[in-house]
Design brief:
Protein name: ABC transporter ATP-binding protein
Structural class: alpha/beta
GO molecular function: ATP binding; ATP hydrolysis activity; transmembrane transporter activity
CATH class: Alpha Beta
Number of strands: 10
Number of helices: 8
Radius of gyration: 18 Å
Bound molecules: adenosine-5'-triphosphate
Oligomer: single chain
Family: Belongs to the ABC transporter superfamily.
Pfam family, one: ABC_tran
Helix content: 25-40%
Keywords: Amino-acid transport, ATP-binding, Nucleotide-binding, Transport
CATH superfamily: P-loop containing nucleotide triphosphate hydrolases
Length: about 250
């Protein structure tokens, strides 16, 4: 099976040229198989956001390589990287990052509008994802007229509308109550299975992580453990995650 993500000997040092450099990521190696749903967990300060930012092409590493869909992203120039991101990647952040002055439909359409897709292509794609994420009745509204759960679904629809190969999530349920978090995770699960889009998300929440099929635990900038769901039910996997966290975070 093809790797959608292949990370080799990745290091990130903040303030590298100062008297107090900080090694946030230490020689990380990681492969994500196409179609996988992967979660990254770890204590506060362990390097989760730094890792996600390097993988998502938002922060340059100090050394090592990140291949996404077989492309070494840090060898691309700024224009190529922007194009690559626009075609292959989708992003869902905790803060939604919706544009308040645009309607829900226009927010969802953003990746396609930026790529200058045809009007009919955009309308069809927006309708398709709005149906998948139960947003058909919200398309004409503006973000300030939506609930938190609806806003997060709009962010998910926007991440999905251009059929990316890979979606990055940074605490995608962080701002949601438990009912909305469950609903969001069910949607991500559906996107992963039905659209065959790989997902890599950072979360501190064991419940959200239990929807993934693999979890990597970061500690002090290194992957120290990996749990695989295999054929366990989500509930059993959830308990296994909690058991592991009980020993891990002491
Ligand atoms: N711009 C920066 N300059 C210097 N150090 C930084 C910078 N950004 C992060 N760090 C440090 O790198 C380490 C990892 O930070 P990171 O935000 O990746 O952790 P995290 O696991 O996502 O934490 P949290 O769960 O609290 O968000 C922390 O010790 C942090 O203080």
């Amino acid at each position: 099976m093809k790797n959608i993500v292949n990370v080799k000997n990745l290091n990130l040092t903040y303030n590298a040229n100062s008297i107090k450099p900080y090694h946030a990521l230490k020689d990380i190696n990681l492969q994500v198989t196409e179609g996988d749903f992967v979660a990254i967990m770890g204590p506060s300060g362990s390097g989760k956001s730094s890792f996600l930012n390097v993988l998502a092409s938002l922060q340059a590493p100090s050394s090592g390589s990140v291949l996404i869909d077989e492309q070494n992203i840090w060898q691309l120039n700024a224009n190529q990287l922007a194009k690559f991101r626009g075609q292959k990647l989708g992003f869902i952040f905790q803060e939604y990052n919706l544009i308040e002055s645009l309607s829900v439909a226009d927010n969802i359409a953003l990746p396609l509008s930026l790529a200058k897709a045809k009007h009919t292509t955009i309308t069809d794609a927006v309708n398709q994802v709005a149906t998948l994420l139960h947003l058909k009745d919200q398309l004409k509204k503006f973000p300030n007229e939506l609930s938190g759960g609806q806003k997060q679904r709009v962010a998910a629809a926007r991440a999905l509308v251009h059929q990316p190969k890979l979606i990055f999530g940074d605490e995608p349920t962080g701002a949601l109550d438990s009912a909305n978090a469950r609903e969001m995770m069910n949607y991500l699960n559906k996107i992963n299975i039905e659209q065959h889009i790989s997902i890599l998300m950072v979360t501190h929440d064991a419940f959200s992580a239990s929807f993934a099929n693999k979890i990597h635990f970061l500690s002090d900038g290194q992957i120290v453990q990996t749990l695989e769901r295999s054929n366990q039910s989500r509930e059993t996997f959830y308990r296994a995650i909690l058991d592991f966290l009980g020993t891990f975070e002491e």
